[in-house]
Amino acid sequence: MLIDQMFIPYSFIEKEASHVEGFSPELALVTIGGGKELEEKLVVRPTSETIVNHMFTKWIQSYRDLPLMINQWANVTRWEMRTKPFIRTLEFLWQEGHTAHATLEEAEKEAMQMIDVYTKFAFEQAAIPVIPGRKSRVETFAGANRTYTIEAMMGDKKALQAGTSHNLGQNFSRAFGTQFMDENGQIEHVWQTSWAISTRFVGGIIMTHGDDAGLMLPPRIAPIQVIIVPIWKKGDEKSAVLEAVDSVQKILKEAGIRVKVDDSELRTPGWKFNHYEMKGVPVRIEIGPRDVTNKSVVVSRRDVPGKQGKEFGVSMEPSVLVNHIKGRLEDIQASLLQKAITFRDSNIIDVSSYGELKEAIAEGKWARGPWSASDADELKVKEETSATIRCYPFEQPEGTKKCFMTGNPAEEVAIFAKSY
């Protein structure tokens, strides 16, 4: 279902006090339309909670209408002062979900389920070892009771908020009067969630796995998993090489592998090697006259540079070739994830004092430590170090803890880092 409303009346945004306060600096306003001043200014949609609630109020009457769940891909606009491709842009595309439930427990279950979905996608498909957790009060989405997040470490060690899920409680339903009659005939306000992941995740993939040669795409999300480059020098070698290339391409396609052949004669094989490395294609197959004679191919891995990543004499026999390529694709997927985990873990420092946090942040690392200090203390850390609480991770260490800022008992550790 799609609620395609790019312009939202400003009065909608104003209905939920913390929502308008949180988003005011990022709003783009329309005051003139058709050459005339508008009676009510419009907001270019920064997020859809308000317009969704306007519609939910019309659609929901009874407990039989619940849960009501919508999912949409929508463009939103936020007035960023410092833009960065993919990561912080004025306008971006995202997947945006909104749900309404009869109870707080159902809403909480939905919010947690979606952050689990995002976590699983990050690990299993994008090979990004995100840290899932709960945002602090200061960092909670404007209008939400709780915000859950997945935080990813980029190649420059900055944190990227890669996806969020919010338990909105009844904040928006009370503001908009979104009510239903329960099974006992009582009128209640619905409990809601919203969750989103955006094109920012594309930037996350680039900055997690890329290197000086260009992109490096995990095989499970790569549009092209295998590029085949034919090689010949003499005219009489061409037909035999292309025939072998065609055969290998068909074998791999029939096995469900996303494969492309670049048989263009406008560029040299060396140029093509560099080109597809830059585009991040996980596996390259080279087939030349000698390979045709030997009924074999040369296989190169994008994630292992130079001769170390090359295998010679891989048989063209269909079952052998398919198993070999599928095995290599899985190896690359696992290798990229493990490399990212190792990089992440080696750049998180456990701290037990504010001085240690400052030192860790100054070195460009993430700092992890027990925290039970006030919102004012959290803002002090941000002001003095530019680092924020990225999350309270779901996975918490056992044992008693003491807040590194105040020395008071702490129930949880928090992760601090600079972010985009």
TrEMBL record:
UniProt lineage: Eukaryota, Viridiplantae, Streptophyta, Embryophyta, Tracheophyta
Keywords: Aminoacyl-tRNA synthetase, ATP-binding, Ligase, Nucleotide-binding
The keyword Nucleotide-binding is annotated on this UniProt entry: yes
Main EC class the enzyme belongs to: ligase
Aminoacyl-transfer RNA synthetases class-II family profile domain segment(s): 1-218
GO molecular function: ATP binding; proline-tRNA ligase activity
Enzyme Commission no: 6.1.1.15
Domain of life: Eukaryota
Keyword Nucleotide-binding applies: yes
Listed Pfam families: HGTP_anticodon, ProRS-C_1, tRNA-synt_2b
InterPro entries (UniProt xref): aa-tRNA-synt_IIb, aa-tRNA-synth_II, aa-tRNA-synth_II/BPL/LPL, Anticodon-bd, Anticodon-bd_dom_sf, Pro-tRNA-ligase_IIa_arc-type, Pro-tRNA_ligase_II_C, Pro-tRNA_synth_II
Protein name according to UniProt: proline--tRNA ligase
